[in-house]
Amino acid sequence: MTASTLTADRERPDDESLPAYLAPVPTTLEDLGLRFAWLVVAINLAGTAFGFWYYSGQFTQTATALWPWVPDSPLATLFVALAIAAWKLGREQPWLTALAFFGNLVLGLWTPMTLLAFADSYAYLSPVMFHFLFWSHLAMVVQALVLHRISDFPVWAVGVAAVWYWSNLIVDYFVPIVGEPHHTIIPVARDTAMFLEADALGVIAAGEVSFVLLALFLALAIRVKKCEAVSRRA
C-alpha cells in the first residue's frame, strides 16, 4: 500500500475516501496545506523554537536524562515538520508521521483543555499569549487530521507512536523515574481540589490519557479503512 498523495478526496475512487469522523478537515483546506507544505514546515519549526524557549525554565528543574520528555508540544511540532518534509522529499517515514499524528492531536487538545481548566490561574498570561497558546494548539489538531493524506499508518508505526506517548504518560504522571512527575508545569499545586473530587494532577492526567487513547483509535481506524479500500479494489 502506498502513501496518500496530494490528490483531493473528490478525485479519488469513492472507496478510498475516509468517513468524516476520520477526515473532518475540508478537502479544500487539506489541499491548501499540502500545496504549501514547505510553509507549514517552516511555521512548525518556528513554533518548535518558541516552544523550546517556553520550556527553558522547566529544563533547568529537570534531570538531563529526562529532557526528551519535557517539551511535549515543541516535539510534536518538530515531528510534524520532519514528517511533512520527508514526504515532500519523497521519503515519507510512517513512524515519524505516526508520532506527528499522536503528538499534534494529543497536545493540540490537552493544552487548550488545561488552559480552560485553570483559566483563572493563568491570569498572569497576557490575553495575547493566552489566545496564542489556545488557538495555535488547536491548529495542531487540524494538521494532525490531514496526515492521513501522506501516510497509511501501518500498525508497526502506530505502535512506535503509542509506545513513545505511553512512556510520556508514565513519566509525566505515574512513575517519574527521576525526581517529580515531568508534566508541563501548571499554575496550581498538583493536589489542588478541582471537580468531581479530582485534584489538579488527576484532571490533566485524565485528559492526556484520554487523548492518547483517542489518537490510538483514530490512527488504527484510518489504517483499517485504508486496508478495506484496497481490498475493495482488488
TrEMBL record:
<feature type="transmembrane region" description="Helical">
    <location>
        <begin position="153"/>
        <end position="171"/>
    </location>
</feature>
<feature type="transmembrane region" description="Helical">
    <location>
        <begin position="67"/>
        <end position="87"/>
    </location>
</feature>
<dbReference type="Pfam" id="PF07187">
    <property type="entry name" value="DUF1405"/>
</dbReference>
<dbReference type="InterPro" id="IPR009845">
    <property type="entry name" value="DUF1405"/>
</dbReference>
<keyword id="KW-1133">Transmembrane helix</keyword>
<keyword id="KW-0472">Membrane</keyword>
<feature type="transmembrane region" description="Helical">
    <location>
        <begin position="124"/>
        <end position="146"/>
    </location>
</feature>
<feature type="transmembrane region" description="Helical">
    <location>
        <begin position="200"/>
        <end position="222"/>
    </location>
</feature>
<keyword id="KW-0812">Transmembrane</keyword>
<protein>
    <recommendedName>
        <fullName>DUF1405 domain-containing protein</fullName>
    </recommendedName>
</protein>
<feature type="transmembrane region" description="Helical">
    <location>
        <begin position="36"/>
        <end position="55"/>
    </location>
</feature>
<feature type="transmembrane region" description="Helical">
    <location>
        <begin position="99"/>
        <end position="118"/>
    </location>
</feature>
